[in-house]
Amino acid sequence: MTDHDGLIVGADGVTRCFWPGDLPDYLHYHDHEWGLPVADDVRLFEKICLEGFQSGLSWLTILRKRENFRSAFAGFDFHKVATFGDADVERLVQDAGIIRHRGKIVSTINNANRAIELQKECGSLAAYFWSWEPGAADRPAAMDYATLRANPTTEISTRISKDLKKRGWSFVGPTTVYAFMQAMGLVNDHIAGCECRAKVDKARADFERPVRR
């Protein structure tokens, strides 16, 4: 890896973004998930909740616990999570397989209820989130290495954060929202020169954007 471009060449000879290093599970996530566009409401809800849990931690920590989170939170089916009560909170606080942060657990249940409201209003979570997709004039062609390392926020992620908070969502700050946007394909922040960038560009070009009602 060189400091000026933020790229790393793996043992397999593939040039990638710097951040997965040489960790197999992180490489798989980078190559097969990160940045590919998503329209599934459950996956979108899962990701924004897990980004909230990640606050103050590394994403790798969350990634390695993701299956535990899915088991604990009913697969992130927000209609089911919305029914969780005090007993579920106590169960989850005792679950060593996840991040046992009471505030974030309560937030996930709260956000499940808010997700149902948003789905009813907009038709789907996907329609809501994709309505915020930045246009070409709103961002550079590729996020530069220095900015990406700085854990960025953008004007649009700040606006989404404010809108979600007005709707009663929690643990959805601008940095959390931007990480969500990067992961779910609303932007393509694979660094120029990463071999996954073109794949994500094609997937985004072929992707049928859901329409907000």
TrEMBL record:
<dbReference type="InterPro" id="IPR005019">
    <property type="entry name" value="Adenine_glyco"/>
</dbReference>
<dbReference type="Pfam" id="PF03352">
    <property type="entry name" value="Adenine_glyco"/>
</dbReference>
<protein>
    <submittedName>
        <fullName>DNA-3-methyladenine glycosylase I</fullName>
    </submittedName>
</protein>
<feature type="binding site">
    <location>
        <position position="30"/>
    </location>
    <ligand>
        <name>Zn(2+)</name>
    </ligand>
</feature>
<dbReference type="GO" id="GO:0006284">
    <property type="term" value="P:base-excision repair"/>
</dbReference>
<keyword id="KW-0479">Metal-binding</keyword>
<dbReference type="GO" id="GO:0008725">
    <property type="term" value="F:DNA-3-methyladenine glycosylase activity"/>
</dbReference>
<dbReference type="InterPro" id="IPR052891">
    <property type="entry name" value="DNA-3mA_glycosylase"/>
</dbReference>
<dbReference type="GO" id="GO:0046872">
    <property type="term" value="F:metal ion binding"/>
</dbReference>
<dbReference type="InterPro" id="IPR011257">
    <property type="entry name" value="DNA_glycosylase"/>
</dbReference>
<feature type="binding site">
    <location>
        <position position="17"/>
    </location>
    <ligand>
        <name>Zn(2+)</name>
    </ligand>
</feature>
<feature type="binding site">
    <location>
        <position position="190"/>
    </location>
    <ligand>
        <name>Zn(2+)</name>
    </ligand>
</feature>
<keyword id="KW-0862">Zinc</keyword>
<feature type="binding site">
    <location>
        <position position="194"/>
    </location>
    <ligand>
        <name>Zn(2+)</name>
    </ligand>
</feature>
